[in-house]
Amino acid sequence: MVAAIAPELQEPPAPPVTSVAREAVEPDPIAAVMRAMRGRWRVAAITATLLGLSLAVLGFMFGVQLFQSQAILRVYPQESNILYSTGNASVVKTFKSFVKAETSYVASHPVMRRAVDILTETGSDLGDDLKVDDLSKSIEVRGKESLIVLTTKSREATFATAKLDAVVTAYLDLKKEADEARFAVRLKELREREDELSTRVNALRSQQLEVGGEFGSSAITKAHIEKVAQIDSLAARRSEVAATLATLEAKSSGSPADVSDQKIMRAILLDRGLADLNFDRVKKVAELADLRSKVGEKHPSLRSKREEIAVLEAAIEERREQIRILAQTGALTDTTEKGAESSLSEIKQLYDKVTAQIEGARREARDLNRRRVELSAISEETEETQKLLVETRRALEVIRLESGRALPGYTVVMSPPSKPVDPSSDNRKLLAAGGMAAGAMAGFVLALALGFSEGRLRYAETLAPQAHRLPVVQVTSAGPDDAFAADRLRNEIQLLPLRGPRLANRPPILVLTRTDSGSSHPLSLALAESYARARMRTLYIDATLEADCNGDAKPGWRELLADLPAECIESETDSSLFLLPTGQASEIRDETISVGAVRSAVNRVSEDFDVVVIATGSLEDSLSSHFILSVADVAIAVLSPADSRKNLFRHLERLDTLPRHGSVAVVRNALAADPWASIRS
To answer: Among 94, 110, 162, 578, which is 20 to 30 Å from 169 by CA?
Structure first.
């Protein structure tokens, strides 16, 4: 019988689970969403419906009906022909300005403040906690030609009318008070402010003239640039003088050729024309840099400036060449020993002179820069003060328009605040629809979030990425003790390809375990009974040691581990099935056994059987289960949808490496929505 089983276990064809796994783990976001929502559509729909209805009711309850009221004021001109052709455009412009001013005044804070006081005095319940800003924001004031239109909305129709009544009354009252007061105090303050600002502007302008002198800000800036250019030119000249001086001192007693070179250097250095040309060149370079910073690199004026610099550079080279030619032709006066000393003294004096000129130029540059910065600050202050003066004069002009008999117009109530009957807007239905949509979306989002955060196994396809380590050979909704499902599992195991040749004269050893807390006994016994029905002499071993010993139990697995006699019990229902119970040796516990004892016990008891099925404890709770897996040919991980993913993936390495031919997974009590149930049942 043993020889007959080996070919079945070594059958080469691989199960189609690998292809299924590859399709299941395809990185498709839509597929991921569908997997997360699988089995949750009904709950999601119910949740979405309940949330949607709840939020819809809340949205309808919190929605509002708004009633609109409108009042119209009309501004009439003092002169009846202002609105018609008068030939004087300034009169019409003044009247339009007056209408704009009145429109702004209606919406002003004083009017709204007075309107709030009127509403409070009338005893309106809605106006008790009303603030000025709230009232101002709730009323729209628009000017159109000579009309001032006031519009407001409110949840209460009567309150909408009351608000506009209060605003119109407050406006007319304040206008009357203004006619009596004529803005005397404010007018005086603004005039004093105008005088103060005018005096300040004049003082700043005088200070500007004093600091700038006969030059303006731009002239001082230009002078500062030129002065910086002069400093650069003098610095270059001083460097040249220093270099020449060092050369002359080194060659003062040299050959005639050296004396000739000394004459040339001295002539170049002391030549006034050449110095002027160098200064002009440095000045033009500074002007070019300033112009480039103002107009950019591509401006046409830069070309002429560069041409001027090129002309000066050519003139400098020409002058130098002239001096060399004069020296070569002997036109320059010969320098005796005494003359050489005189030249050195002259050049040293020139060096001191140039140094003094540099210091003086730096002082002048600092003074020009100080004046430039001071003028800039004065200009900014003058500009700000002028802006304040303009605003003050504008305010004075408005007051003049609003005061005295010279006002261009007057205001009357053309249409009193209307009394609304029907609401102008109702957002309750919109909020209800929005609440329904939001609730429905929230229900599905919650279900989706639950799916992505699921810690349970739920579906067999979760194991698809680990198909090379733990292939799934059966996914069924049947329970662990289902006989037909056990027969199908038996066939799958017999067709399972092995990693290597099976050991001779040894029956296949199958170990059933769990990665989560739970028992593998029902499926282990059902599988053993299935092998027995196939007329294979089968031994079923209950190798769980976590429970306490039963005194009435017969000798079994514990005794084998202790090297004591044990008895295999023949099944009452099938003569091919033999049972080895846990045993009664209390000294044998889960933490006291060794791997050697396990292997010895299995070898002793399995000699006379065609297949051995061992039910061991959970990998999560049992210590000896790892030892038992090490003697197994094939391990069978009994899984259920409620098992922890974390525990399963944590034990994958043990399941793959400890059994001789690896492990397979069996999912029992699979969910109805498991897609693998139809192909691995």
So the answer is: 94
